[in-house]
Amino acid sequence: MPGRERGARRAERAGGFRRAGAGRAAALALAAVLAACAPRIENRGNDVDPDALALVAPGSSDRAEVAALLGAPSSTSDFGGETWFYVAARTRAVAFLEEELVARRVVYIAFDERGRVAAIGKLSEADGRRVPIVDRETATAGQKITLLQQLFGNLGRFNAPAE
């Protein structure tokens, strides 16, 4: 009987190893799922270095100096005097959920007619305006036909070749 007892003990230990292996695998799978759900933080745009911005002096700095210190602007004004905008945003997304805006920084530099810096400022979210989305559809010329009408509309419209 000693052989049977040794075999039973071995089988018992092997079952314990299997259970421990399954527990480790479950823990690894759980860790992988939790790591996949970690938030992704992304920085976008041109975030102005405050030290470089401090070197831009109204009245003496020109466009070339601003471009050398801060880089190319994110956007420029279309109306009125020339103004450069440096826009930076930080977003956060978790797994497949929609991105969330964490922070947005807008720095503007206005130039006078000689190309010198006239004003430097920062815009906050309070300075922005919500633009309503228009739901209207623009009418187009032509007919409204279904997919089947499009597919079978040309049947029988072929002309015989001219002789």
Task: Characterise the protein shown here.
By secondary structure, the chain is of the alpha+beta class. The chain contains four helices and five strands, in the order H-E-H-H-E-E-E-E-H. It has helices at residues 2-36, 50-54, 63-70, 147-152; strands at 40-45, 75-76, 83-93, 100-111, 117-123. The longest helix has 35 residues, at 2-36. It is flat, with a radius of gyration of 34 Å. The chain starts with a helix and ends in an 11-residue tail after the last helix. 6% of the residues are buried.
User: Which stretches of 5+ consecutive residues score pLDDT under 50?
Assistant: none
The rough form would be described as: flat
The major pleated sheet works out as:
5 strands, antiparallel
Order of SSEs = HEHHEEEEH
Percentage of residues in helical conformation? 25-40%
Average pLDDT works out at: 81
Characteristics:
single chain; five-stranded antiparallel β-sheet; 163 residues; flat; alpha+beta
Explain the layout of strands and helices.
Layout: H1 2-36, E1 40-45, H2 50-54, H3 63-70, E2 75-76, E3 83-93, E4 100-111, E5 117-123, H4 147-152
Q: Could you give a short description of this structure?
A:
The chain is of the alpha+beta class and 163 residues long. A hairpin with a 5-residue loop joins strand 4 and strand 5. The longest helix has 35 residues.
